[in-house]
Design a protein that fits this description.
- This protein is an alpha+beta fold.
- Helix content is 18%, strand content 35%.
- The chain has 9 helices and 29 strands.
- It is globular, with a radius of gyration of 26 Å.
- The two termini are 36 Å apart.
């Protein structure tokens, strides 16, 4: 029997159960992401071994106030003065003296965090760096924080909170697999410029890290973490595990360094060298000042140059790793790419594998030419990411018309070979995504693009289980132009092509308290992990409860990781007059500006998590 026929039979066998489930059962929502030191949490992964969620917006971040200069404090006050009218719930600086003494009010503390996280300062390694994304893992005994490669700030008992850590999968043995960045830690760099008279010795503190991103595996629930190096490790290299099945994992790894970036780094390092007035070898470059060990004296450490050129630093390839039962890598395989660039093309190209099934078939996305008919690309040929299948050592684009669909990605594949993802297109000049699925067993790959809440709605499919149930999220509001649209989680049944707003599977009471706006994963028991909007007591940047002038507790809408457990029962009709619940649409209207604000903020926050987790 062919693999395609086997796939059809498997879907048919599960059809009755899956259809019955989608039409008659409902879900009970369980909050799993309430943790005391983070404002937001986001559902990430679920299977029989456990669940994973990520967090953002840590309360009371470990700001090193003694490292801020007068110029830094002045810049913080300028930021607050110029932008406080446009920042929700923040006022101008309340107590400048207390701020500069390192004991700011919660309002002023929030401005320090905002200043450190503004774009100019993310490139300024002369100030403390904050990234602040971690993962929580529940393997059956409660959620515990997993900080990956983060480390204590020297001479403190506090984590740097300068890393992004993502547990992207938990395999059948309970191993944690994912990717994370190195912490930014302080380095006091001293050099002496003896070309001056008298010689001048300068010490400057820099906040530097060892690498941008590395894959990891932990076989003991997070106690010990092993990093996985890429083939190209110059300047640290880059790698990540995005999906796993048993002892097989897939993701990405750096395989070469950009010649353009390498030249930029070399020039940056050269510019940091203090030079004499002599040119002994006549090459047009003055001789370097040497220290007592014969090394060139530099104004800044080389790592500063690595940091400034970290974007598009590497050629990235989709990779597969095979582990032994002790979590050691026994083989690493480059899964290939879609493009063969012009020999004069100095740009870097990327390919990622995001999921793999039990047959070793992987999916993801890779760069390919926008002109799908090109056979001899130019040195500046336009390219984009397109949905990709990795099979038998070959990268295969999942076919979509490039003139109609501008890019795409695949996020998951089940053991029957059904893969899910998204493709990009334009609606009235505005870019949207549309969810797709495809049977990779078919002799000719033919993606299916189901309808969602309305024509032109953006949508993304993030996961599929072996019952043929797809979960994701889609635009719920039909707004024109570039206006951000609120999202709703959905469940799509490939057995009967039914599309359902997941919120309607909740009880009327839970529909009042929660709005499911992003769905990330579904396991073989049809349990779902998602992110919902929920109203909670408001806290300030230090994590303290906030009250109004009369002492009444204020509230706010936040994102919270949730698990949806299937339960027996009928879908409840919440539209009955007088029940006080109302429809999802009515609740959205009642929430008004607050829900709109949290949705807008959340789209940006969710995007950060999506990019780092699902390369």
């Amino acid at each position: 029997m062919s693999k395609f026929v086997k796939s059809v039979v498997a879907l048919t066998v599960s059809s009755a159960l899956a259809c019955s489930f989608a039409q008659a059962a409902r879900y009970n929502l369980v909050e799993i992401g309430e943790v005391s030191n983070h404002e937001f949490s986001f559902g990430q992964h679920i299977n029989a071994r456990g669940s994973v969620f990520s967090t953002d917006q840590t309360y009371n971040l470990p700001i090193q106030f003694d490292q801020l200069t007068e110029a830094n404090y002045n810049a913080i006050e300028v930021l607050a003065r110029n932008t406080n009218q446009s920042v929700f719930d923040l006022n101008d600086i309340e107590d400048s003296a207390a701020l500069r003494a390192g004991n700011p009010t919660a309002n002023d503390f929030a401005w320090v965090v905002r200043w450190l996280q503004t774009d100019p300062n993310t490139d300024n390694v002369g100030v403390q760096q904050l990234l602040d994304i971690s993962s929580y893992v529940d393997l059956g005994s409660g959620a515990t924080e997993f900080n990956g490669f983060d480390a204590l700030i020297p001479n403190t008992q506090t984590l740097s909170r300068s890393t992004r850590t993502f547990v992207n999968d938990v395999n059948s043995q309970g191993w944690l697999l994912g990717n994370g960045s190195a912490p930014y830690l302080p380095l006091d760099y001293t050099f002496t410029d003896s070309t001056q008279d008298p010689a001048v010795t300068t010490t400057t503190r820099f906040w530097l890290r060892a690498f941008v991103d590395k894959a990891f595996v932990s076989i003991d629930g997070g106690t010990n973490v092993s990093s996985i190096d890429a083939p190209e490790v110059t300047f640290g290299g880059q790698s990540g595990i995005l999906g796993a099945t048993n002892n097989t994992a897939v993701g990405y790894a750096s395989t070469a360094i950009s010649s353009i970036r390498r030249t930029n780094i070399d020039n940056c390092i050269s510019a940091n060298i203090i030079r004499l007035s002599t040119d002994s070898d006549g090459d047009g470059t003055n001789d370097p000042l040497l220290d007592s060990e014969g090394n060139a004296v530099k104004r800044r450490p080389d790592e500063v140059c690595f940091h400034l050129n970290r974007t598009a630093l590497y050629e990235i390839s989709a990779y597969q790793w095979q582990f032994d039962d002790n979590g050691q890598v026994v083989s690493a395989t480059n899964l290939g790419r879609l493009v063969t660039p012009n020999s004069e093309d100095n740009r870097v190209f990327e390919a990622y594998a995001t999921a793999v099934n039990s047959q070793g078939i992987a999916v993801g996305h890779a760069h390919n030419w926008r002109d799908e008919n090109v056979t001899e690309p130019s040195a500046n040929q336009s390219f984009a990411f397109y949905p990709t299948l990795y099979r038998n050592g070959t990268a295969i684009e999942i076919p979509l018309s490039h003139s109609e669909f501008i890019d795409g990605r695949m996020f998951d594949i089940n053991n029957s070979g059904i893969a899910v993802g998204q493709t990009g297109f334009f609606v009235n000049g505005v870019r949207r995504d549309r969810f797709i699925y495809v049977d990779t067993n078919a002799s000719e790959l033919s993606p299916v693009l189901p309808d969602t809440f309305f024509s032109g709605a953006g949508s993304t499919a993030r996961a599929i289980n072996d019952n043929g149930l797809i979960v994701g999220d889609a635009d719920f509001e039909n707004l024109n132009g570039n206006t951000l649209r609120r999202r709703r989680g959905f469940l799509f049944n490939t057995n009967d092509n039914s599309f359902t707003d997941l919120n309607t599977f909740l009880s009327c009471q839970q529909r009042t308290n929660y709005i499911i706006n992003e769905v990330r994963d579904i396991d073989e028991s049809n349990r779902i992990i998602a992110t919902a909007i929920v109203k909670v007591p408001r806290r300030d940047a230090k994590g303290e409860l906030v009250t109004d002038a009369s002492g009444n507790q204020l509230t706010e809408d936040v994102f919270r990781a949730v698990r949806l457990d299937p339960v027996d029962g009928e879908i409840e009709d919440c539209s009955t007059a007088g029940n006080g619940e109302g429809s999802v649409e009515e609740r959205t209207e009642r929430k008004g500006a607050t829900a709109g604000l949290i949705s807008t903020i959340g789209l940006a926050l969710l995007t950060v998590v999506r990019i780092r987790r699902r390369k």
